[in-house]
Design brief:
Blueprint: H1 2-17, E1 27-30, H2 36-48, E2 54-57, H3 60-68, E3 82-87, E4 91-93, E5 98-99, H4 106-114, E6 116-124, E7 128-129, E8 136-140, H5 145-154, E9 158-161, E10 178-183, H6 190-198, E11 203-206, E12 208-209, E13 214-219, E14 222-227
Parallel strand pairs: 1-2, 1-3, 3-6, 4-7, 6-13
Antiparallel strand pairs: 4-5, 5-12, 8-10, 8-11, 9-10, 13-14
Helix pairs in contact: 1-2, 2-3
The structure holds ribulose-5-phosphate (5RP).
Length: 230
């Protein structure tokens, strides 16, 4: 309980700290989840003080929060190239590989992050690990859930169809797909696994991101900024 409270405070600290990267005129990708929600709220208050930005939301959650906070939104069709994308993570390792998709939003999050010149992640310190071992969320066509699960098992993983909390049956993403969580235990070579997952038919997007530039990690209220190792 104490840990959960400390993590909640650290989520806020990291989420708010990254807002210092945002400058007038930028087009910014707005991520999904409870940590980056603090970024969106902070950006909303900066907009109230005169900051002029456009936001590209990664989910219905990010969209409605950004609207509530007074951030003007745009689309990738209007702005295919972003200055910066900011998002949360489920896990980040010391090699800067990232697992995302705990909120089932990683397909859009990845499109937005890879459309940006810079990608920053905000997280509490519990997410920063020497080596990834979090299950990898896979967005899959409902029609393909069976073959994707079988292929995951052939790769040595354990596949679980994610179930909804306030609805009977599986989680349905913002894109109308299912989520399969693929547990591989410790992931020794995230790039290799990413390539293998990308080759599975019917798998829309996996949650391994390889384009992180800057990490904001908060521990006991202190935020450490780590740049991608050269
Ligand atoms: C959503 C995500 C989230 O960014 C990730 O799950 C972290 O969430 P939180 O900041 O609530 O811990 O990838 O798909």
């Amino acid at each position: 309980m104490k840990d959960a409270l400390a993590n909640a405070e650290d989520k806020r600290a990291a989420g708010e700290a990254v807002a210092a990267l945002v400058e007038d005129g930028m087009v910014v990708g707005l991520g999904t989840g409870s940590t980056v929600a603090w970024t969106i709220r902070r950006l909303g208050s900066m907009v109230g003080d005169g900051l002029e930005i456009l936001g590209v939301p990664t989910s219905y959650q990010a969209e409605s929060l950004a609207i509530e906070c007074g951030i003007t939104l745009t689309t990738l069709s209007q702005h295919p190239s972003l200055d910066l994308a900011i998002d949360g993570a489920d896990q980040v390792d010391e090699g800067f590989f990232v697992i995302k998709g705990g909120g089932a939003a990683h397909a859009r999050e990845k499109v937005v992050a890879y459309s940006a010149r810079r990608f920053a992640i905000v997280a509490d310190a519990s997410k920063y690990v020497p080596r990834l071992d979090h299950p990898v969320p896979l967005e899959v066509l409902p029609f393909a859930a069976g073959i994707v699960s079988r292929k995951v098992e052939e790769l040595g993983g354990r596949a679980t169809l994610r179930q909804a909390k306030m609805k009977d049956g599986p989680v349905i993403t913002d894109n109308g797909n299912f989520i399969v969580d693929a547990d591989f235990g410790e992931i020794l070579d995230p790039s290799l696994l990413a390539n293998r997952l990308s080759a599975i038919p019917g798998l829309v997007e996996h949650g391994i991101f390889e384009n992180l530039d800057r990490l904001y990690i908060a521990r006991s209220g202190e935020v450490e900024v780590i740049d991608r190792p050269k």
